[in-house]
Structure formats: C-alpha cells, structure tokens
Amino acid sequence: MERLRYFLQRTLLSMRQTPLLSGATIGTVAIALMLLSFFTLIVFNVQNLTRQWSRDIQVIVYLDRIPSNSVLEQWCQEITKLPAVETVHYVSQAEAFERFRKRLGQNDDLLDGLMPEILPASLEIALREEARTQRGAEELVELLSRNSTFSDFRYGQEWLERYDAFMFLLRLTGTLAGGFLIFATLFIISNTIKLTIYARRDELEILSLIGATPFFIKAPFLAEGAFQGAIGALLALGGCHVLYYFFLKKGLAALLTTAAAQNISFLPTWMQVAVLGLGLTLGLAGSMLPLRKFVRM
Amino acid sequence: MERLRYFLQRTLLSMRQTPLLSGATIGTVAIALMLLSFFTLIVFNVQNLTRQWSRDIQVIVYLDRIPSNSVLEQWCQEITKLPAVETVHYVSQAEAFERFRKRLGQNDDLLDGLMPEILPASLEIALREEARTQRGAEELVELLSRNSTFSDFRYGQEWLERYDAFMFLLRLTGTLAGGFLIFATLFIISNTIKLTIYARRDELEILSLIGATPFFIKAPFLAEGAFQGAIGALLALGGCHVLYYFFLKKGLAALLTTAAAQNISFLPTWMQVAVLGLGLTLGLAGSMLPLRKFVRM
Amino acid sequence: MIQLCNIGKVYDNGAPALHDINLKIPSGDFVYITGSSGAGKSTLLRLLYCADRPSRGQILMGERNITRLRPRSVALLRREIGFVFQDFKLLNKRTVFENVALPLQVQGLAKQEIQSRVYQLLQYVGLEYKLQRKPLELSGGEQQRVAIARAMIVRPRVLLADEPTGNLDSDLAIEIMEMFTRINHEGTTVLLATHDRELLDRFPRRTIVLKGGHIVSDTLPQTAEETPSKEEAI
Amino acid sequence: MIQLCNIGKVYDNGAPALHDINLKIPSGDFVYITGSSGAGKSTLLRLLYCADRPSRGQILMGERNITRLRPRSVALLRREIGFVFQDFKLLNKRTVFENVALPLQVQGLAKQEIQSRVYQLLQYVGLEYKLQRKPLELSGGEQQRVAIARAMIVRPRVLLADEPTGNLDSDLAIEIMEMFTRINHEGTTVLLATHDRELLDRFPRRTIVLKGGHIVSDTLPQTAEETPSKEEAI
Ligand SMILES: Nc1ncnc2c1ncn2[C@@H]1O[C@H](COP(=O)(O)OP(=O)(O)OP(=O)(O)O)[C@@H](O)[C@H]1O
Ligand SMILES: Nc1ncnc2c1ncn2[C@@H]1O[C@H](COP(=O)(O)OP(=O)(O)OP(=O)(O)O)[C@@H](O)[C@H]1O
Ligand SMILES: [Mg+2]
Ligand SMILES: [Mg+2]
How far is B120 from B93, CA to CA, in rounded Å? Predict the structure, then answer.
C-alpha cells in the first residue's frame, strides 16, 4: 500500500520536476501517433471511397440469342452461385436500346425508325469487392465461357487496367508508407524516451546505490512512460479529430456537393481505443528497454 | 586557425564521446526526413500519374452544320487562343462514324447500310492542365457558347465531377498531410536535439564557467548539429532510394505491365539537394534554439 | 564481522587500486582508513558496498560472501549499510527531505514514521530549516550533512563513510564524529575513510593506513597517537 | 585591487547568504576566507567570479565594476581568474588533459604550447601518469588536483579557491599551498576559502571570518595565530 502510494506520487511528482523531459515525451508520442492515426484515417476513407467507386466494375455478357425465361432464370441462378459474383442483371434488347437513346441525348432522333433489335441483350454481372480487379474479371469470364452459349464478353478492359494499377499503387504505397510509419513511430518514440532516461541516468544510479531493488527503481519510470504515452495518444486523437473535423469534414462539405464528402468518417471506436493502447504500450515498452540498459547492477 | 582546428576536432571527438546522443540525433533526422521524402516521392508520382490521366478531359462541341474549311480554321485558331485550351481537334462525321463502329466491335454489322451522316461532326477541345476541372470545363463552355453557332456541348460531367472530387481530396489530404508532416519533422527533430543538449547541459555550464565566450561554447554544438543533420539526411535519401527502387520500381515493374510502372521516378536532383539542405538546416537551427536557452550567462 | 581475503582490485582501464588486502573487522568496531590521495580508501569502501566488484579475493560480511551477489541481493545488502559518498551522490531533483527519506521509502516504511525520523535526523545535523531545498541550493558542507543523514537514517548495521568531514569546519566535524560514535555505541560497525589528522588525534581508534593499494599499517588506539607524530616528522 | 561595497546576496529562493559585505583586497594579497558551513564563503567567491550576481552593492575588480557585465565581458573576465570549485566542475566526458587544457584552448593558444604547459602543471600536482583518464576514473583527491591545475593553467591574475584541500591529505595539501604561495609571489592575488585549521596555522595570512553572511573578523597574520587558539577554546 505504502509502496503503491509512493509509486503514484513519484510518477506525478517526477513529471512535475522534469517538465522538459515529460513534455518532450508527451509531445513526441502525440505527434508521432497523430501522424499514424491521420494516415490511418486517410487510408480508411480512401478505402471506403474506392469501394464505392468499384461498384461500377462489372462483366457484361452479350447474348446472341434471346433465351427463354426459364433458361434465363437458370443462368442467373448458376452465375450468382459463382464465388466472384455479387448480382446478375438481365438487360433486354429494349432496355439496351433505351439506354443507348439516353446516351445520345439530344441526338436521339437519329435512332428514330430503328428497331430495338439492333442492340443485343446482355447479362450485367456485378462483382464482389474482392474480385473487382482485372484478374477477377478475367477469371470470371474464363468460368463463364465454359458455357458455350456465352462467347461475347465486355468488362471495360482499359478502365479496369487503370483501376487495377491505381488500386495496386494505392495499396502498395499505403502498406509501405504505413509499415514505415509504424516503424518510424516506434523508433522515434523509443528514441525520445531513451534520451529522457539517459538524461536521468544519475537518478537511476543513485537509487540503486541507495539499496532500491530493480523493480523499485523501474516502476515509477515505467508508470511514467505508460502515463505519458497514454496522454500523448489522447492528444493525438484529439488533434486528429480537429484536423478531420475542420479540414476533411467541414472543408469538403463546403466545397463539394457530392456524396464523397458525406461518406468521410472518423476512425471507428475500436481504432481509437487501439491508438490509445498503442500509446500506452509504446510508452511502457519504450521505457523498459533503456531502463534495462541503464539499471544494470 | 587554432580555433578552427579546435572546433573541427571537438565536433568529431564529441560525436565519438557521446555515441548514444549523436546516434539518436542522426537516427531521428534520418527517419523523419525519410518519412518526409518518401511522402514527397509519392505525391510527386501521383501528380505525374494524374496529370497523364487528365489528358482525357476534354470539351466536345457538336456542330449542327458542317462548316466550310475556312470557317473551321478560323474557329480552331480562335479557340486555341483561349487560355484554358491546349489543342483543338476537328472530328468529321466520317471519323465519328468510324469511331462508333470501332466501339461497337463485333456488333458493327448493325451499322451496315447507315450513312455516316447519322452522327454529328464535332470539335474536341483538350484542356490545359490547370483547367482540367469541372469548373475549368464549364468556364470554357461558357466562353464558347458566346459564339451562337456552338450550342451543343458535352464534357463528361459525371466523370469530371468524380475526378474533381478525387483530385480535391488528393490535394487536400496531400497538403494537409504534407504540412503536418513537415511540422512533425520539425518538432521531432528539434525535440530530439533539445534532449541531447539537455543531457549535456552541465558541459555547457562548465564551459561558460571556464571563460568560454558564448560563441566558443556554441560553435562545436552547432557544427555537430549541422553535421548530424546532414548525415541523417543522406541516410534518409539512401533509405528512400532503397524503398523506391525495391518496392516502387522493381515491385511495380514485376507486377504491372502498364505504362504506370515505367513512369514512376525518383525525386529530381534539386529535391534531393533540398532534403540534404533541410537536414543540415534542421540540425543547425534545432541546436540553436535550445543552446540559446541553456547558454544563458 | 567483516572479513576481506586476498582482495585485489584492478579497474577496467587497467589501473590497479588494491593489492592483496587481508582484513578482519569485528562487528561493532570503529575503524579509520587513511592514506594519501589515490591510496585506495574509496575503492575499499566501495567494494564493501558492492558498488564495485573485487577483481580477486573474497569478502565476507556476517555469514554472507558478498563477492558475487545477484542484483536483488545487492539491494537488500545495501539496505543494511549506510554509505556517505565522497561526492555525496544526492538526487538534485528532489528536496533534502526526499533525499534523506529515500532509503526508508525503499524499505516501504509508513509515511508517518518516515517523516518523524527524517525530521529528527535533519535536526541533528542542523538542517531542519532547509527541508524543502534542493541539494544544489545548499552549500558544500550542507550537502555533505544531507549525505550523512541519508546514510544514517536506516540505522545501519554497518556505516561506511568516505571523507565525511572534508567540507565541514572542525566544530561541525566534531559533532558529526560524536554522532558516529553514538551510533557505534549502539552496535553499528563504522568504517571511516579520512585525511583529517585532527579527527584521528581527537578520536583515537583503530587506524588502517593504505599506500598504493597496500595496507602499510594497522594500529590500535594506543599506538594511533604515535603515527601522526611520526608522519609529521617526514 | 578587489573592492566590495555593501554587497548583499539573497538567493532566488529567498535565502539570504551575504549581508552588507565591505572588503578591500589589494593586488598580490593572499587572503583566507573561513567560517562555518553555510557562512557564505562560496557565495562570496562566486560573486567575484560573476558566477552569481550580487543582490545589492558593487564589486570593483581593478578598474572594472563587474556587477553588471554582458556575457562576453564575463567570459573575458573569467579568463583572468582561476577558480577551484568546491565540487570541481570537471567535464566527465573529457580526459584530464583536455580538462586542464580547456582554458588555454578557450584563449586560442597554439597546440604546442598548450601541451607543454598542461603537462608541466599536471606533473606539479602529481597526475602526469593519468593524463588520459576521465575524471570519473580518478579518486576524489585526484579530481581536486585536476580542478586546481585547471584553475592555475592560465597563470591567472586572481586565483579563487573554494576548499581546495578538502579531499587531500595534509602532505598534499601542503604541496598545493606551496604552489599557491609561489603563484602569489609571482603577483597573483589569492583568495582561499577553507575550513582547514592546520593550513591556517602553518601558512598564516590575512584571514576573513564569515558567520551567517557577515564578516565577523578580518585579521592579519600576527593576530591570525590567536584566532584558532581562541576558537579551539570554545
Ligand atoms: N572508476 C575508476 N576507474 C579507474 N580507476 C579508478 C577509478 N576509481 C579510482 N581509480 C583509481 O584507483 C586508485 C585508488 O582510488 P581511490 O578512489 O580508492 O583513492 P582514495 O584513497 O579514495 O583517494 P582520495 O583520498 O583522493 O579519495 C587511484 O589511483 C584512482 O586513480
Ligand atoms: N544556489 C543556491 N540557492 C539557494 N541558496 C543557496 C545556494 N547556494 C548556497 N545557498 C545558501 O546560502 C548560504 C551560504 O552558502 P555558501 O555555499 O556560500 O556557504 P559556504 O560558506 O561555502 O559553506 P560550506 O563551507 O558548507 O561550503 C547557505 O545557507 C546555503 O544554504
Ligand atoms: Mg576517495
Ligand atoms: Mg562552500
């Protein structure tokens, strides 16, 4: 009990006694984690955005002959069962003609007198999220072409290629930057804590000379590290929220009228808790390592 | 002369005598600047990429009547003079029909027997880079519609809207993240240097007690800071180049066959020099501020 | 009972500080260790405190061989020993009170008891009005007295004092010596490294003289009075 | 000529250390400052070195009023003064040689000259074999001698020594005192704060006694012999 009280008191007191050092730790944790969370926030939202956009990716099967309703139904059922498929939509010749007319806009008079039958009927197959790549589309086409009635496919090759490249680049740089950012955060935080502990190494030495056990010496430092890490993480979340609110949310809403702005959201709660936990853990672990080095007895 | 030799000697000696401190500074500068340069590298390449993509953005003017060659030439000249316009391309009815046929692909037999005149002739106006936005296109349409012969415009509203939103988001988060990253780099580096100088404050005090002038005390610390900053920047550039080479260049080239991979390039030389300069400046300025605080006499 | 057998100490940089020291100090003894600067007095005391490890030989303290202890045991050993360091080794960030209270907090005593004991001891050394000062706001002699108080606060079984009166005037030195004598009468073994011939003369005790890391003489009180006069003749 | 007029010093925490000190020390004098622990000896010396500023009063050193100097002037003043700090204030990261050479490097002397002067002086204080050691690898007395060497290396016009023999045995103390006497004969003004009555007796000089921040006596050699005997009677 006395011990516990002593440790808590020491932790707070020591943060007061060395404001420069604890300020440095808290500041570094805050900035580094803010960087990390803001990055996560962006990745998170870009993912949401591209997920929406990728709804347009679909495979179209042009049908040479118009199937009977029962055959059509059977096809739809079979295709829907394929793992890569989300939905199947039958576009009749009339519907295709109507769409074409709409597309021509004011020039639709050109189609006057033409029969709807000039355009083929088709099946529009929407892909599941994980299959929305060039490869996914090609594999589906491969599968579908086993049915010899399906021979004429269209799946926006050029757009898909570009989309694929973009998504790949996004994912690659995201992973790379994210991985590197995590590493940088770890390095910078542990480095800063190492320096603050280095600056207090005489304290560690004297405590050990006074007959303090390694645990007694380290406990207040660890508590301090964890506490500062947690405070830093809170500040990071706060700062990140401010950035998010004023720039992403308000800024976008004012400038854009698209759905894009509405869809931007803050980190979900579990991620926020994770950031807090990360700060605490980093503060704790970051103190542990240099302490082990300086408290050798 | 003796002085200069003393300062140089001291700088190197002191880095040897406090490897933990100089290691921390160099490491932090390296990591922070690597983060910054890698971010710049990504922004730089994404900009290149979107610049290429945005070539597709154009305003199409459908012509009700086929103009005479001389009128056409005059129009082209006038339009080309507009600030937002890059090039103007005249698409004749025959060319439009040909394109339409290509688009239909295997179904082109549908057009057999139709006259090319069912499709209108048009002017395809490519925009300059800075005008490749919804607003830019609309302004151009506005200008063009002063000529009463031009009334039917098409400029891919939906695609442009989406592109705009995307570019805006990209630019916003880029600026935001970049600005914040620069701030974070400044903070973290100056913070680390402050801690290393704090750890050596007794040295500063004793030097001043020995009769050293403020300049004499600070010079080796400043030189050390600048030197460490420069080394850190070099490491950052090296690390960034490794990341770039193995992940972006090789990785993409192996996985993609598109032009996208070929177009990815490293930071131009002037930016590399800027990173080096930034490291040096940060090391110098980051030492200057805490030194001013600790060397008060 | 403290016993040193064939103790030798060579520092990491190769500097030999002690050679082949054999020594027996019964419990409750009061022993001076003297000798010129660099003779090895501090090194000897530091070995007894496990602040350094001997390069060779064994040290027995009570029943225990303290030559190769694990960190936790070292900590426990140190709680029974008070040490006045030659360079004080006070925590500059903490107040005088906190510095002196530290060894008791390490042992987990109740706040109440810590407070009264610390206050009492600081009164003894004449610093009761400077409880809340930081060490750097004290004069050299005051810092030394804080160090002495910190060493005595635990009522140690062994007190090792390295030049504890180097920064004190003779009146204060005599007061401090009287404190040491008192604690010695209560059963604490006292080892005191000092240069101060005045103290040796005024409080004659067993005196061990070191020179270049060797014991050159080990005399009991009756002969202790001879040594200074002999050396003064040099 | 050093002159103090109405000097008072109150530390930031409100502790008064010196009251209304008036003092004249002619150039080339050798003066002891003594008094019990906390009397204000170190504070007085630190004021002369501009290591602290007096709260009131003026200090004249030669022609200069050193009470309000700008940083650069303080640095230049300090180059003419040697100071042996009570707590040594050595640079732990640098070797003994570098520590002693520092004041000369500050003045921008040639490497050759620095080397020979440092070596010679370290020989005087008996540390020529420990040139390459770091201060923390030295005994207390050795550190003190490094501090003394550093103060004397610039052949200062004024030497301020705060308890310079506290960690030295009397033989060494006497040697050091002889060095001080020699440098004093060459024209350096020496102010020496000490508790060591043996020195006062052996090298009788003008002695200023402080008590609670006041000057309680200021006696010249012939009477200086009285003072200790009087105090011993207390
Ligand atoms: N940490 C160390 N590393 C290397 N050598 C050391 C160390 N500490 C002391 N020495 C050397 O060991 C020898 C004995 O040192 P010690 O401190 O025991 O002397 P001492 O008798 O206490 O002297 P003093 O009276 O000056 O304090 C000296 O020559 C000293 O230079
Ligand atoms: N930095 C400081 N801040 C506050 N008070 C101080 C400071 N330094 C000294 N004092 C106080 O000023 C008084 C005089 O201190 P000073 O160091 O001059 O004494 P001294 O005569 O040198 O004593 P000693 O012989 O113990 O070294 C003491 O009461 C001390 O507590
Ligand atoms: Mg010693
Ligand atoms: Mg003093």
Answer: 6
Task: List the beta bridge partners of residue A26.
Answer: none
Nearest-by-Cβ selection for C42 from D43, D87, D139: D139
**Contact of B288 with B222, CB cutoff 8 Å:** yes
Instruction: Quote the number of domains for chain C.
Output: 1
User: Which range of residues forms the domain containing residue A87?
Assistant: 58-155
Place of tokens 């550093």: D150
- For chain C, list residues whose CB is within 8 angstroms of any CB belonging to chain D: 11, 13, 15, 34-38, 41-43, 86-87, 133, 137-142, 144-145, 162-163, 166-172, 195, 197-198, 231, 234
Ligand in closest contact with the CA of D85: 4
3-state secondary structure of C187: coil
Residue of B31, B53, B134 to mutate when probing chain A, most A C-beta within 10 A: B31
**Nearest protein CA to atom 1 of ligand 1, as residue:** D137
* Residue B125 identity: I
**Cα B227 to Cα B221: distance, rounded to the nearest angstrom:** 10
Q: Which of A126, A155, A184 is the last residue of a domain?
A: A155
**Is the CB of C39 within 6 Å of ligand 1?**
yes
Q: What is the pLDDT of residues A246-283, one digit of tens each?
A: 877 776 666 655 555 667 788 899 999 999 999 999 99
D13 Cβ closer than 6 Å to some ligand 2 atom: yes
Contacting partners of chain B (3+ CB pairs under 8 A): A, D
**Whether residue B28 sits in one domain with residue B165:** yes
Residue C232 domain-assigned?
no
Q: A178 near A39, Cβ under 8 Å?
A: yes
CATH of the domain at C209: 3.40.50.300
Number of domains in chain B: 2
Nearest CA to ligand 1 atom 23: C38
- Convert the pLDDT of each residue in B179-202 to its tens digit: 888 899 999 999 999 999 999 999
3-state DSSP call for residue C6?
A: strand
Of B102, B134, B155, which residue constitutes the final position of a domain?
A: B155
Tell me the best of C10, C21, C43 to mutate to test the pocket of ligand 1, counting ligand atoms within 8 Å of each CB and taking the most.
Answer: C43
Tens-digit pLDDT profile for residues C60-101: 998 889 998 888 899 999 999 999 999 999 999 999 999 999
Number of C-beta neighbours around residue A158 at 10 A = 7
Q: How far apart are CA A132 and CA A125, in angstroms?
A: 11
Instruction: Write b or e for each residue in B140-168: b if 16 or more Cβ atoms lie within 10 A of its Cβ, otherwise e.
Output: bbeebeeeeebeebebbeeebbbbbbbbb
ipTM over 0.90 threshold: no
> What is d(CA D135, CA D102) in angstroms, rounded to the nearest whole number?
14
**Taking each helix axis from N to C terminus, what angle separates A269-294 and A19-53, rounded to the nearest 10 degrees?**
140
- C108 to A2: CB separation less than 8 angstroms, yes or no: yes
Which chain A residue has the Cα nearest residue B115?
Answer: A110
pTM higher than the cut 0.95? no
For residue D217, what are the domain limits? 2-222
In a domain, D175, yes or no: yes
Tokens standing for residue C187: 């059963």
For residue C161, is it left (φ>0), alpha (ψ between -120 and 50) or beta? beta
User: Sheet harboring C206-211: ordered strands across?
Assistant: C81-84, C158-162, C189-193, C30-35, C206-211, C214-219
Record the tokens describing residue C178, joined without a space: 């009287």
- The minimal CB distance from B210 to the residues D102, D110, D111 is found for D102
In whole angstroms, give the CA distance from residue D207 to residue D193: 10
Instruction: Decide if C89 contacts C147 (C-beta within 8 A).
Output: yes
Give yes or no: residues A234 and A288 share one domain.
yes
Residue A8 three-state SS: helix
Asked whether D148 and D84 are in contact (CB, 8 A), the reply is yes
A157-199 vs A214-243: helix crossing angle, rounded to 10? 140
Distance, CA of A7 to CA of A11 (rounded, Å): 6
